[in-house]
Amino acid sequence: TPQDSWWKSATAYQIYPRSFCDSNGDGIGDIPGIISKLDYLAELGIGFIWLSPVYRSPMADNGYDISDYQDIAPEFGTREDFDRLLAGARERGIGIVMDLVVNHSSDEHPWFIESRSSRDAGKRDFYVWRDPADDGGPPNDLQSFFGGPAWTLDENTGQYYLHLFDRKQPDLNWENPAMRREIWKMINWWLDRGVAGFRMDVIDLIAKEIDRGIIADGPRLHEYLQEMHRETLAGRDIVTVGEAWSANTENALLYSGQARNELSMVFQFEHVTQQWDGKLGKWKPRPFDLAALKRVMNKWQLALADDGWNSLFWGNHDLPRAVSKYGDDKRWRVESAKMLATVLHLMKGTPYIYQGEEFGMTNAAFSRIDQFKDLETLNFYDLQTAAGVAPEDFIAGANENSRDNARTPVQWSSARQAGFTTGTPWIDINPNHSEINAAEALQDPQSIFTHYRCLAKLRRELPVIVHGDYQPWLEEHPQVFAYSRHLDDQTLTVVANFGDRELQLEVPEAMRAEGRGLIANYEDRNVIGARLSLQPYEAFAILS
Ligand code: TEU
Ligand code: CA
Q: Which homologous superfamily is 467-543 in?
């Protein structure tokens, strides 16, 4: 039944191929590198991999600019390598979920090359073209998410094309049914090869109505998704997750409601953006506020209690490292990383681990702008320093929130170049790889890795984690995150100290519990009495 879909009891793992594992010494992670780590991933106990783009691409945005949706980028490998990855994963019971980037393509995609060739080219309307404003400038003052105008003039035809991201990422025109048919064909081609589903890049932007100033969540969005479902996904047992920065608890039910025939779930970002400055955005983070974070997390748990489905994540390739953002990546790194995993993975939804999170990788500590590689960071450095922000202040913000924090190579061992490559890595490796690495974590029964493995196993084995309802506790407490889950006659209670101070807690009567300790990052616990004393970053769960 849909109620019991496989992806509800699965733990997901995101791979950003460029930074995962390099097999041939060119400094860039690749598909053979991923294949060499499949046993490691099977050991962790994941159910599917979300693979960030591996398609042919000029790599202006590390593969989120696709020039051939049905080929593999040579730096990542060949189609044969991909088929070996698919087969190797399948043997281990792991699905491969592709990244579907269809809000835009690369400007080097044949569709765009044809589209720009003349005003009456057959594929002109595969993209969004507009006449210049009266003064010859862009049609309007819309800004790209990566900074600067969202329009670029094509000299040859005298019109501007829209790009909500980089100028090398022209937006596809979803109003064009012929364009949509090409996308459906491509999706079916991948599904027929046996992929387990898709993560859909900025899916909330596809129905923009640019002349009416509508960018996200356009009027035809759900119509397009239902058409996609009908033409491609229907009748197949796959998982889909849409990236939707504009998602709220109301429209999440439109995307993921059972009867809607759209997506399995969305990635929502309310817990992320609530921490950004109103004006300078992510480059000027707000101080961490646990009560505010809980309000968002609890709201989402409750809103999708009966219909729809949550995705659960602290990090991805666009976000800082979980332990650096929400924990303490120095003194309490191991404790706080386990605490974060416990709180997230025992909620209702499908949890996503971002590569390296499973052994507590931390943010990059770059001190010079030339160490950053991400075009978003580099563009905003130029824009904000030109507007008067001091370079060192910008770099301080980037050290907290730049996308490159998640993109330093996975630290496999304490060896030279962290066992990631035998050559020169495309981006600097974190020097802390001598202590923080997968090899170390694998041989330590108390490691963060062991903790994640245990959480994935609990999810596979205990229906209360998958289906149980959600009851938050101590909602306004500034340092404690607590909740319980109920299914039939079982109750799972989770308690976590989100701070580096030991604390004494008065426990509300209804929250008290006694049972079997399931997981803990200090001593095992099996009682929650009237008073509870919690160690720094302590977290545990009890089943009663
Ligand atoms: O991200 C969408 C997106 O909006 C982010 O780039 C966001 O603007 C940024 O992280 C916050 O400052 C998706 C992909 O995840 C990202 O890697 C791509 O660069 C982007 O789409 C374009 O494809
Ligand atoms: Ca390589």
A: Golgi alpha-mannosidase II (2.60.40.1180)
